[in-house]
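Batch manifest, entry 17 of 40.
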Amino acid sequence: MTTRSTLATSLALLVGIADIAGADVVRRYALVAGANLGGRERPTLRYAVSDAARFAEVLQELGGVDERDTILLEQPTVGALENALATLRERTEAERRDPAGPPRRTEFLFYYSGHADEKGLLLGEDRYSYRSLRDQMDAVPADVRIAVLDACGSGAITRLKGGKRRPPFLADESSDMRGHAFLTSSSADEVAQESEGLGGSFFTHYLNSGLRGAADVSGEGKVTLNEAYQFAFHETLGGTTDTSGGAQHPAYDIQLSGTGDVVMTDVRQTTGGLVLSEGLAGRCFVRNSKQQLLVELQKPQGRRVQLGLEPGAYRIHCNLKSGGMATTAEVVEGAHVVVGPGEMTATERQETVARGLSEHPPGPRPLDGRNRIDLRWTISTEDGGTAVSTPGVSVTTSGAGFGGGLDYYRWFREDWALAISASGRAVDASTYTDFTGTGTQATSIASLLVGVRWTPTRNPRASVRPYVTGLVGPYIGSGTSTSTGLGVRVETKALAAPGIFLGGGVDFRIGGHFLLGVGAGADLPANFSEEIGGRKNYRAFQMNVTFGWAWGRGNVGGGKGPR
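Output type: structure tokens
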């Protein structure tokens, strides 16, 4: 899967939106779609559909979009998407033709979360091109057209009319804007990422947080297009800087004209709400009763932040300079609950929130995406015994063969790793005495094998992980004999034969980087073409103890990663 086809570029055809306070003269239509499936060659996403549902929820609660004017699609086909676009186009046309109703501005919002590449949206096995999307958007007779796409490579849509990624823009001062704007969660050649810790994509999570009030820098209770974009831009960039997918830069292309301001949401729409007081300063998280993370923001000292939330119970946790503090609050109709340091209590241990791949809860990290090196000590059982012959005496000792090795693993999934193993072990040692004198002989076996390791435990936090290993490669047998008598004679012989190793065991993970393991297996080389040390067969059963060190950040999210 290429970077461009990975998933998660958030395209936002974000259009200037009139002040929601003037809802009687503005009507908004919204088409929101989420698709976890992007074809057989791409991994299944976990949060695209839920991201779409949460975005639609924000639009209905705070964005002035009526439920009857919202179409929410889950895993749509290209045909279903085109039919929904046609339906809203017809509704918009009917609204503009209605002579009985008051003259109103119409605004159209489109959101997509799922797979995409540099050519278009990936819906199952089909692709919906960016050109077709822009043509369909342009055909909607709305004053303002807004689209948000959360998928890899969808930043390419901004290139269709010369758009490019730039720093955060200054919004037009407009309440009568006309035109469109495109916002993308990443540029055309970057991946857009989702996170298990956030329960969704980085960009959509931070955009929703901003729209709920976290981005309201002015403190007026309204979130403008400029505020929402800058908040999502900086938070997404900060949250992905240290991830395996790399820094993610939201981008935009805006074609708007008019005067006034661009208001995306109005947190005063709700009859109740949650207010973070001026005295709080730190990273704050707000979760609902289902423990879903709804809002995340860096709360500045001295600024009052009002959040638009539906009535219900919420838990607020803030990481302050003095440590972690938390409280619960009940938001009710007709009241705003104010939360400050005085309403919060210190937590025994500071909570952590996995913001993508760079931060991890305490305990073992995931193996997916990490590297590992093991030092291995082995003891092998060999066939053999002691033989005595005349007229000389020959004593042969064999049995336990001590050895060791160095193993490297690259975990490309939580349960699968590429394995490379280099090993060596002493096998036979013999001494003899006859009429010609005395001599010694030693035999050893070395191997360089490549294969895979599989563990049935896919839990990234598991501390005990059984495994099975299969390796193939060359075995090299070498023998050295030394004899004394009429002179000193040294002979060496080295032969190679193909073979396999089959084994298993259990790893015990210690913290984030270290592992101890015990295992057993069978070395099964083919017979050598000649005898080495008196035999051709060097198959053996081995037991081993390993000490491992793992490095790398690992992929939080069960391998979801980019979209």
